[in-house]
């Protein structure tokens, strides 16, 4: 069992930056691939980024490639999402998730555990 708690969301101006964190419970954190998803108002939950067990592989949605960076610190049981050059269309609730598969899973059904989400609002 893994419990995930996101933090770091908030209100930011277009062009600004935020760093989200996701703290995980459990001693097997390093055996889970991890991902970030988001759901905008009235939209479905969408894949944002994923990182493999070791952190050696990452994968991004086209919409965030080059602006967002996913990373993990297995010693701290935490993953991060550094978000730069934020746009109003990045406004959403952001969720972290854990998957027992390796690699960089991109689909909701591949993930076993989810956090409650943190709101990110990009607006002037």
Order of helices and strands: EEEEEEEEEEE
SS-based structural class? mainly beta
Alpha-carbon Rg, integer: 13 Å
Shape, principal axes of CA atoms: globular
Distance between the termini: 40 Å
Q: Give a short account of the largest sheet.
A: 7 strands, mixed
Beta fraction: over 45%
* Mean pLDDT score: 95
What's the total count of β strands? 11
Q: What count of helical segments does DSSP give? A: 0
- Helix share bin: under 10%
Poorly predicted tracts of residues: none
What does this entry look like structurally?
This protein has 124 residues and is mostly beta strands. The mean pLDDT is 95. It is globular. Helix content is 0%, strand content 46%. The chain has strands at residues 4-7, 10-12, 18-24, 33-39, 46-51, 58-60, 68-73, 78-83, 92-99, 113-114, 118-122. The chain contains no helices and eleven strands. Strands 2, 4, 5, 6, 9, 10 and 11 form a seven-stranded mixed β-sheet that branches. The chain has a four-stranded antiparallel β-sheet with strand order 1-3-8-7, with no helix packed on it.
Summary tags:
124 residues; mainly beta; 7-stranded mixed beta sheet; 4-stranded antiparallel beta sheet
Care to give the gist of this entry?
Helices cover 0% and strands 46% of the residues. By secondary structure, it is mainly β.
């Amino acid at each position: 069992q893994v419990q995930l708690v996101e933090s770091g969301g908030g209100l930011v101006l277009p062009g600004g930056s935020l760093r989200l964190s996701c703290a995980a419970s459990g001693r097997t954190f390093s055996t889970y691939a991890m991902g970030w998803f988001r759901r905008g108002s009235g939209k479905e939950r969408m894949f944002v980024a994923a990182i493999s067990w070791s952190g050696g592989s990452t994968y991004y949605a086209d919409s965030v490639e080059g602006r967002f960076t996913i990373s993990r610190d297995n010693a701290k049981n935490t993953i991060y999402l550094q978000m730069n050059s934020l746009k109003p269309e990045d406004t959403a609730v952001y969720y972290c998730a854990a998957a027992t598969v390796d690699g960089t899973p991109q689909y909701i059904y591949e993930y076993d555990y989810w956090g409650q989400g943190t709101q990110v609002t990009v607006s002037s």
